[in-house]
């Protein structure tokens, strides 16, 4: 039980740190909004990112797990405020997401590995991915994913 609790804390801390990196790097480096909405890009911090209007998606690459983070910039929250778990339709399939408030916006991640695998597979195999009422391109997703994996494997 103790190990599970520590693993949960570790994953939440890791999620938060990755979120900071992802969001900070998007604000620090200018992206062409038209390009980011039509193709996945790897920014200067080696974070893959795509957007649809006011919603952003990030990919986290790990040896055993790959996660898609989603933040809706139209939604607001206060730092430290609890963000409720919610179910979003992902290409018509219900998927649980959990969240944290980060920089005034909820940052959501799938709650289960099964959900994460499903969402990730949708980005790998479909022409687009609809999350809630936003549609994300999958163009460039696989190459961005491979680029991040290559950068990580080459890192000292």
Average pLDDT taken over every residue: 77
The residue fraction in helices comes out at: 25-40%
Described by its quaternary structure, the protein is: single chain
Large-scale geometry: globular
Proportion of residues in β-strands: 25-35%
Number of DSSP-assigned strands: 9
Alpha carbon gyration radius: 15 Å
Signal peptide: 1-30
Keywords: Signal
Q: Could you explain the architecture of this structure?
A:
- The protein is α+β, with helices and mostly antiparallel strands and 156 residues long.
- The protein has one domain.
- Helix content is 38%, strand content 32%.
- It is built from four helices and nine strands.
- The strands form two sheets. Strands 1-2-3-4-7-6-5 form a seven-stranded antiparallel sheet, with helices on both faces. A two-stranded antiparallel sheet has the order 8-9.
- The termini are far apart.
- The N terminus is likely disordered.
- Keywords: Signal.
Characteristics:
156 residues, alpha+beta, seven-stranded antiparallel beta sheet, two-stranded antiparallel ribbon, 4 helices, 9 strands, 32% strand, globular, disordered N terminus
């Amino acid at each position: 039980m103790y190990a599970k609790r520590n693993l949960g804390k570790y994953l939440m801390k890791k999620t938060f740190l990755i979120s900071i990196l992802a969001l900070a790097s998007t604000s620090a480096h200018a992206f062409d909004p038209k390009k980011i909405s039509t193709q996945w890009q790897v920014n200067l911090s080696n974070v893959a990112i795509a957007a649809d209007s006011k919603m952003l998606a990030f990919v986290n690459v790990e040896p055993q797990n790959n996660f898609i983070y989603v933040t809706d910039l139209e939604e607001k929250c206060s730092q430290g405020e609890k963000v409720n778990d919610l179910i979003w339709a992902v290409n018509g399939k219900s998927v649980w997401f959990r969240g944290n408030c980060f920089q005034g916006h909820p940052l959501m991640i799938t709650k289960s590995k099964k959900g994460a695998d499903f969402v990730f597979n949708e980005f790998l195999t479909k022409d687009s991915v609809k999350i809630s009422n936003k549609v994300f391109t999958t163009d460039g997703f696989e190459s961005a994913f491979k680029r991040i994996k290559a950068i990580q494997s080459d890192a000292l």
